Amino acid sequence: MIRIGCSPPVEVGVFPYLIKNFLLEERSCSMQCKEATSLIIPFIERELPEDKLKIFLEHIRNCKECREELEIYYTIHMYIEGIDRDWFSTYNFKGEFEKELKEANAYVRWTNIMSFFKDLITAFAIIGILIILTLQLQLWGLIG
After folding, report:
1. 18-54 pLDDT, tens per residue?
2. Between 20 and 30 A from 73 (CA), which of 4, 40, 45, 64?
3. How far apart (Å, rounded) are the C-alpha atoms in residues 51 and 53?
4. Structural Rg of the chain based on CA atoms
5. How far apart are CA 93 and CA 127, in angstroms?
6. How many CB atoms lie within 10 A of CB 58?
7. For residues 12-32, b (16+ Cβ closer than 10 Å) or e, as one string?
8. Which H or E run contains 103?
9. What is the pTM of this model?
10. Stretch among 10-14, 32-36, 122-126, 140-144 having the lowest mean pLDDT
11. 42-50 LR contacts (CB < 8 Å, sep 24+)
């Protein structure tokens, strides 16, 4: 069993490494509401660093109050930005907010996938180096 963020423990099945490190990414509940609210504006302005983005999105997913506050800030931000652009007749604030959250979550998933493949390639490279080293040592007659 592993614990993902603030959620209850999850049973890991056949591929514990893949599930734990790649799909679920085990973390502690390190972000408090005060820190999450301080990151709302950087999130809206897309200036949140990747490491903080992952934890922030997890907190927003699990904390109803912070999610509501984010939605309020997002709506106000978009309203102010849209005054000059005459968005109000066609702009769907709620839909755009949900779309923004989906895009941020997709970005985090994509970085997790890329990180997994980077780790996989590194592991294959290390295995390849060890095989080459073993073969070279056999050629020199130092082993087996």
Report:
1. 544 544 444 445 688 899 999 999 999 989 898 899 8
2. 4
3. 5
4. 22
5. 51
6. 22
7. eeeeeeebeebebbeeeeebe
8. helix 93-139
9. 0.59
10. 10-14
11. 43/70, 43/104, 44/70, 44/73, 44/74, 44/77, 50/108, 50/111
H or E element at residue 119: helix 93-139
Q: Burial-class residue 140 by CB neighbours within 10 Å (0-12, 13-18, 19+).
A: exposed
Share of the chain above pLDDT 70, in %: 72
Largest CA distance in the chain: 80
CB of 73 closer than 8 Å to CB of 101: no
CA distance 23 to 39: 24
User: Tell me, what amino acid is at 58?
Assistant: E
